[in-house]
Amino acid sequence: MKIQRLGELKTALGECPVWFRQQLWLLDCRAGLILALDPDTGALLEQHEAPAPLGSFAFNQDGSIILSLKEQIAALNLGKLRILADIDCSHPHLRLNDGISLPDGSFLTGTMHIFREPGEAPLGGCIGWIPICNCTSSTPG
Description:
- By secondary structure, the chain is mainly β.
- It is built from no helices and 12 strands.
């Protein structure tokens, strides 16, 4: 098996690849970019901006993109960002990270506590469901 680069796109921290509507979507988490690529050529087809750092994303059936921001879950639609929820803990080294859309349409995300001091208890964990979302499953196809 040979691993091959798709196109010439370079990211500061490329994560969360998702196949959606015949495009390959991903985040540049450090740059605050949501990107869509042509799966055959790697050409950039769409680019959306949101406050960095980004943790994860899912597509909502209303056309918006649900995002894990540093300490908030938000919906991005037509360039406008709407905050849906804030986490109940603020810390310079805590941020939302991985997330997933669930079969019932909700969005689940978790926190990541980085740069902990020796012996410092972690603040991270699964932070909750957003039942107001109606996310689309990001399964292949």
